[in-house]
Design brief:
mainly alpha; 66% helix
Length: 190
């Protein structure tokens, strides 16, 4: 871990130091987070892909793409309107819960000098990822209404895009995905 330069942002540095000093499991998770983050943000990075990844990721801001899909489904699929509204409610509820959890967790976004973020974000809080949470909530909630595999591929790509762009650690994505799946599973119950 000594070869990893500390984050440039003081808040991000304190956040990472807390995670690294939190005991063996927290230290292992934080170290793995950094290794995977560096691989995705650094080794997998190709400048020619960045504009497309930025544009795709922007569609997930505030769950916009998923809320638009849900609203469109409710408008055009009258026989299943109540199911569309319920599924869209799961996405909106996930977004609200995720926002509250970020305020409680207060984990700062990655801020490594050698791998700066490729986009700006509305806040500096990263845990859990709202993009991942709402995307996986949508994949699960819309799954009975639309083909499930493309939804899961899109949700996964949305999560990876956030690490690629340097604004989330992998555990932010994993926690967001679990949150989204959990909320959608509760809402989908009859």
């Amino acid at each position: 871990m000594t070869s990893v330069p500390p984050p440039s942002d003081p808040g991000a540095r304190r956040s990472l130091i807390r995670r690294l000093s939190g005991g063996p499991i927290a230290r292992r998770l934080a170290t793995t987070d950094l290794v995977v983050y560096r691989f995705v943000r650094g080794d997998l990075h190709h400048g020619s892909l960045t504009p497309a990844v930025r544009a795709f990721s922007a569609t997930g801001e505030h769950a916009a793409v998923w809320l638009a899909i849900g609203a469109t489904g409710a408008l055009v699929d009258r026989p299943r309107r109540s199911r569309w509204l319920r599924a869209t409610g799961a996405v909106a509820g996930t977004y609200a819960l995720n926002t509250a959890l970020k305020v409680v967790a207060r984990r700062r976004r990655p801020a490594l000098e050698d791998l700066p973020a490729l986009i700006t974000t509305p806040t500096q809080l990263s845990f859990p990822s709202a993009h991942a949470a709402t995307s996986f909530a949508a994949a699960h909630a819309f799954g009975p209404l639309l083909p499930r595999t493309p939804l899961l591929v899109a949700a996964t790509a949305m999560g990876v895009s956030r690490v690629y762009l340097g604004v989330h650690y992998p555990t932010d994505i994993a926690a967001g995905a679990l949150l989204g799946l959990g909320v959608a599973a509760i809402v989908r119950r009859p």
